[in-house]
Write the structure tokens for this entry.
Amino acid sequence: MKASQEELRESSKEAAVPTLLHEATNEQTSAKIGIFGDTGSGKTTTGGVIALGLSLAHCEGRPVAMVDTESASDFLIPVYRTEGVKLLTVKSRAFADMLTALKEAQEAGCCALIVDSVTHAWNELIESYCRRKGISKPEFHHWKDIKQTWNTWTTQFLSSPLHIIVNGRLGYEYEYQQNDAGKKELIKGDSKMRAEGQFGYEPHLLIEMEKVRETEGAHRGGRFLHRAHILKDRSWALNGKTFDFADKDGYEKGDWKPIFQAFAPHFEFFDIGGQQQAAPTSTSDGLFGPDGSSEYYRRERQKRIALEEIENTMVLMWPGLDQKSKRVKLLVIEAVFGTRSWEAVQQQTVERIENGLRVLREVELVQKDSQLTEESTVLELFRGCLRKNSGMSAAGG
């Protein structure tokens, strides 16, 4: 018996060797950036220059692709031509075109993809859904389908080997608060990117752009500074920092460098040029049955049924309430499950409980119509059945 327990302990150690977990390594090979702000705040130029810098500094001048919903790419053409980097564009607000453009940009060997603006793609997806459904606006039960479709983009955004810069319009969080009079009023809260509600959490680097009038120098009061507030940096390098970029009369070669260098500490975190992490493919579908019930629920139900059958079988075999019958049942429980506690039996695995039920039924067949109450005879029968059920060897005497 002692040797058997030692073998089980060694077996458990071997089974505990992880196959899913492994030592952490940096698998981030590409930047995922979100930029949002009000009209004229500098989203397009900042995103375009960051993508240009990534191409020149890390991608040997490979092309940059752009999904252009506002014809903003026209104003970036002189910048890219000056630096000798191709700018590939599609002018479309269609969500489907955004997915196709990402695929084509990867196939074309692009360094980066710019989406300007993702707000239009999100709105277009909702509008397309409503047209298909013949409704004017989505109701509560429609949002699940819309968001599941949007998640196709989110997954590809995160797993693509491309650097991706997503620009969005400025939005705000709103919430109801109770005022001094006890009435609820709608309060404008923090700023956010106006797109699907969860998408603002996905970028590794999140930038809010703001335009601020210059208060000093020759252009005081006339020109704007484009101020970049770093709201989130998963590399920790830029969290909470602010950068100001001044307006210029025109672009000159090399003007990308000061803007790009402001964000460079973030890019230093990445293993650019390394092996891109594979897109996540695992799901938890196996935890649910065809009827939607979970595997956990199914096993717990199996366990409850087996425990009830064990109790009822023992009542049929030893229906008496006398001390002798109670003692026999207690000894049987100990022989089969290795414990005298019924609560401890309930905590055992469904496999062990069902195996115990099989042993009990084998003894029931042997006993047939005669009620065995002699402890030595009953225990010998059970030990014989336990020996035939190797899965119970640890519990048997």
In short: Confidence is low (pLDDT under 50) at residues 1-5, 11-16, 391-397. The radius of gyration is 34 Å.
